[in-house]
Amino acid sequence: MLEARGLGCRRGDAMLFSGLDFALHEGQALLVRGANGSGKTSLLRILAGLASAEAGDVAWRGAIQKPPRPALRADTVYLGHQAPLKDDLSVLENLDFALRLDGCAAPSDALFAALDEVGLLARRKLPARQLSQGQRRRIGLARLKLNRRKLWLLDEPLTALDAAGAALFSQRLDAHLAAGGLAVVTTHQDLGAHANLRELVLQ
Q1: 2-11/55-60 β-pairing
Q2: Where are the domains of the chain?
Q3: CATH class of the region 1-75+150-203
Q4: What's the CA gap between 96 and 78, in Å, rounded?
């Protein structure tokens, strides 16, 4: 469903990667590894239509997608390295707002259940500025539980999560893939064992 064909990425005078090819089908995930500055985040931003490639194409459902890739973006949830929260909104408001932007609005009982599962229900009225970095990440886990989009593009999703949070993410990923979803994940940490997980190393 998702293909990269000869992708190249340049930042200034530096060519981060070139001739990059991969294909993902339903139920598959791609783990992207590499040193700092190798282009992992740039690759995700290219796939998400937030940046342009130096060369090559991205195809979704067999059709070439040109930036800003509206058809692909409509099927994608992108979580960057920094938790995308509005500090003045509460935990509950941030989750509700993110899901509405994704076109996946959920009823209050579903929002409450998702926050309860990630350990934030009692803090649902707190403004995001009062949360730890790990708690901010857990809002993203709640968002992934309720999000119905096909493709996940996740940049360092385990950052700041404790062991319990990492286990929750692992469960989320397995459930998403089992339901026919796809994921491209960058991380320096161990994701553990997952079915249909492939690895790409950027030099």
Answers
A1: antiparallel
A2: 1-75+150-203, 85-147
A3: alpha beta
A4: 16
Q: Which residue has the tokens 């700092």?
A: 36
**If you compute the radius of gyration of the chain from its CA atoms, what whole number of angstroms results?**
17
Query: 202 and 42 in contact (C-beta within 8 Å)?
Result: no
CA dist 10 and 202 (Å) reads: 13
Structure tokens given for 13: 């005078």
Closest by Cα among 106, 186, 185, 117 to 146: 106
Residue 145 φ/ψ region, left for φ over 0, alpha for ψ in the -120 to 50 degree band, beta for the rest: alpha
Write out the two tokens for 128.
């995001």
pLDDT one digit per residue (tens) for the chain, 203 residues: 999 999 999 998 999 999 999 999 999 999 999 999 999 999 999 999 999 999 999 999 999 998 888 889 899 999 998 888 999 999 999 999 999 999 999 999 999 999 999 999 999 999 999 999 999 999 999 999 999 999 999 999 999 999 999 999 999 999 999 999 999 999 988 888 888 999 999 98
Nearest in space to 102 (alpha carbons), one of 71, 44, 148, 142: 148
